[in-house]
Amino acid sequence: MLLEDDELFLKEKGYSYTTAIENSAIHIVIHGFSFPLMYQPRQADLLIRLPPGYPQANPDMFWTRPDITLASGAMPQAAGTHEPYLGQTWQRWSRHWGGAWRAGLDTLRTFIAAIQADLNRGV
């Protein structure tokens, strides 16, 4: 279901994860994903949806469960919408990296690095 390089990356990082296909997209749930100090709670499940055509087509946005807030209690920027996937409701983080995606070169490794860089901004 996953590209071999993506599966090796997830295992290399020691992530506990599950995969499923729903609506033609591959759904990867990383269980207990760690968030920087400026968020609460500090761990949540992270959902990444790989669209049909990946890695030529780029992943867009990510989702968390339970909801994540800033340590101040405020909602992170563009993270106030909820969507149903895999029989659960997920907090959507509306982030778009389409212009920066290098089709055929970027992978789950670079997408998760982009997520972590975004989270480290603390907004």
Summarize the structure.
By secondary structure, the protein is of the alpha+beta class.
Number of strands: 8
Number of self-contained structural domains:
1
Q: What kind of assembly state do the chains in view correspond to?
A: single chain
Q: Uncertain spans, ≥5 residues at pLDDT below 50? A: none
Number of helices: 2
- Our Rg estimate from Cα atoms comes to 14 Å
Largest sheet report: 6 strands, antiparallel
The helix fraction, in percent, is 10-25%
If strands are numbered along the chain, what order do they take across the biggest sheet?
A: 1-2-4-5-8-7
Shape: globular
Overview features:
123 residues, two-stranded antiparallel ribbon, globular
What does this structure look like?
With 123 residues, this protein is α+β, with helices and mostly antiparallel strands. It has one domain. It contains two helices and eight strands. The strands form two sheets. It has a six-stranded antiparallel sheet, with no helix packed on it. A two-stranded antiparallel sheet has the order 3-6. The protein is globular, with a radius of gyration of 14 Å. The N and C termini lie far apart (33 Å).
